[in-house]
Amino acid sequence: EITIEFKEMNAQIPDFEDESFDIITGSRVIHHLPDIELFFKECRRLLKQKGYIVFNIA
After folding, report:
1. By the 8 A CB rule, do 20 and 51 touch?
2. Dist. CA 46–CA 19, nearest whole Å
3. Residues 2-7: what's their mean pLDDT?
4. Neighbouring-strand partners of residue 21
């Protein structure tokens, strides 16, 4: 059984524990972020040690 939970929050200060995800994905969102460096710092915190970040910007 697969469980999916949707949450709405600030992408730059997400409310998740460290190393919560195997992959973080997004499409056409980076240009909307006021602080891209902070966003990717949080992505690194949230990813498991061998996790992936996959983003589409076009």
Report:
1. no
2. 4
3. 90
4. 47
- The total number of structural domains that make up the chain: 1
The range of the structural domain enclosing residue 34 comes to 1-58
Q: Which amino acid is it at 24? A: I
Which pTM does this prediction carry?
A: 0.76
CA atoms within 13 A on the CB side of 5: 3
For residue 3, which amino acid is it?
T
Rounding to the nearest 10 degrees, give the CA dihedral for residues 55, 27, 8, 20.
Answer: -20
CA atoms of 17 and 31, how far apart (whole Å): 25
Rg of the chain over all Cα atoms, to the nearest angstrom: 12
